[in-house]
Predict the structure.
Amino acid sequence: MPDTHAATSPSPRTDHELRIGAASRELLGQVLDKWSLSVLNELCEAPSRFNELRRAIPAVSQKSLTSTLRRLERNGIIERRMLSTRPVSVEYRITPLGKTVREPIDGLLAWAATHLPAIDAARQRFDDEVLGPGEDH
């Protein structure tokens, strides 16, 4: 009798494989995008109100900031708290789960800082080969 189990089960993972499932890809895309990183940078320092975040990240539009905050809140990375002020206001703060993302992000930033010169050189070589030397890249 043939072994059908081997044909249907995934092959064992080796150290050089990088498997990223759809759920992980979606989460990383939502947490590591341009505005999320900026928001997380601000909220790691202290809780902030919406307009404080807008001032701290001047390039973000109101729509993009609102969308980013909702996405981070939905993923449990930040929380939204109603403050009993007059008028009522909202404050955003990092959650305990959100604090756990700091170490891997710091690791990626350290990797980028270490390897950016090599990456810039690779980009330049690529651009020179594709566009030709001296072309605007």
Observations:
- Strands lie at 48-49, 78-83, 89-94.
- The CA atoms of residues 26 and 57 lie 24 Å apart.
- DSSP finds seven helices and three strands in the chain.
- The first strand starts at residue 48 and ends at 49.
